[in-house]
Amino acid sequence: MKALQLTGPGALELREVPVPEIGPADLLLRVGAAGICHSDLYVLQLPFQLRPDPLTLGHEIAGTIEAVGGAVDGRTVGERGLVYLCWSCGTCRECVSGNENVCLAAGRVAMPPCPGLGPDGGMAEYIRIPASSFVPIGDLEFAQAAPLADAALSSYHAIEGARPQLQPGSTAVVIGVGGLGHVAVQILTATTAARVIAVDIAAAKLELAARCGAAEGLLCESGTAQAILDRTGGRGAEAVFDFVGTDQTANLAVASVAPNGAYRMVGLGGGAPEITAGPAGGPGWPWGASVRKSYGGTKSDLLNSVALARSGRIRVEVERFDLADGRTALDRLDQGLIQGRAVLIP
Ligand code: NAD
Ligand code: ZN
């Protein structure tokens, strides 16, 4: 089969490789679509290799069951579904509490095994997956379903954790209206009464945000925090979701979140918010506000995301590419030219 593999730092190759063998608890999935996440760009740009042998990228995967492992109950060949990306242990305290995204078996700061970031991923014709990660999608198109596995899941989880703040009359700020952010705007619109303010560096992304339900769009510049304060009676936004994560956006979040508000870090840009212990009164962090570094989401968040998509409440803006054009798609994402999500079709 064909697989898009990372063969060294910055080196991406479409290679001919064997169709994976499956174990008794696995499924073989024929890939229908695989989304491209900004995290794939980070992996491609790493100065070292994640593992010594070539790694098939792709953690947003949807497809059809081609073969079922001998010990798997309740799944049949021909079923359509997507892949939950937290391949967690299933037995630790967090997993049994439904928090598989922070599986303790992964260690204190690592993430659970994720296809395309350790095990081979879905930018290929076939993928081996643990049967427990398969989530049915009904008749959703594969290109719509694949991005739900991360772009919707990680957005949904960040929003779910800030739900107490998202009361009627509240304001939610979404920084970065890319693959994740444009879905986040739709989840906020569909599941809360908050007014959404979108922030991006590109006017075209703010137009996308408006189509997704944002009340207003602001360019990210020096006056943006003040503009948010001006629109919230000086108190700030009850929730700020940062899908970029650079120093600039982290400090925009710090300067624009309300007292008791929620600042959720999702973007992995390595930025450091300036939050200090000290009395209030300065320009800094308001009393009672909370920060969460948000990874992926729970299986429950994923089922909720799929339900929203199946009922037409969220729709991913998709740009389709052939698997062989993966490099072009990644380059376009790097240049900020993708509206919504780029999806590879094998
Ligand atoms: P993307 O490239 O599709 O979107 C990024 C958006 O941010 C673009 O619209 C871009 O114009 C905008 N942007 C860039 N700099 C900006 C700035 N200074 N201010 C405002 N907007 C700015 O990326 P994506 O796939 O949506 O991923 C977003 C981030 O989330 C990445 O860092 C990715 O690695 C991370 N991510 C995290 C998780 C998680 O679980 N925490 C999951 C998936 C992705
Ligand atoms: Zn991702």
UniProtKB/TrEMBL annotation:
Where does the record locate the signal sequence feature? none
What keywords tag this UniProt record?
Metal-binding, Oxidoreductase, Zinc
| Family annotation (InterPro entries) | ADH-like_C, ADH-like_N, ADH_Zn_CS, ER, GroES-like_sf, NAD(P)-bd_dom_sf, Zn_alcohol_dh
What one GO molecular function would you report for this record? alcohol dehydrogenase (NAD+) activity
| Keyword Transit peptide listed | no
Asked if the Swiss-Prot or TrEMBL record annotates the protein with the keyword Ubl conjugation, the reply is no
Name its co-factor(s): Zn(2+)
**Coiled-coil ranges per UniProt:** none
Q: Might you give the EC number(s) for this enzyme?
A: 1.1.1.1
Q: Which domain of life is it from?
A: Bacteria
- Indicate the enzyme's highest-level EC class: oxidoreductase
Q: Which Pfam families match?
A: ADH_N (PF08240), ADH_zinc_N (PF00107)
Q: Where is the Enoyl reductase (ER) domain?
A: 8-344
> Which family is this sequence assigned to?
Belongs to the zinc-containing alcohol dehydrogenase family.
Question: What's the protein name?
Answer: Propanol-preferring alcohol dehydrogenase
**From what organism does this protein derive?**
Nocardia goodfellowii
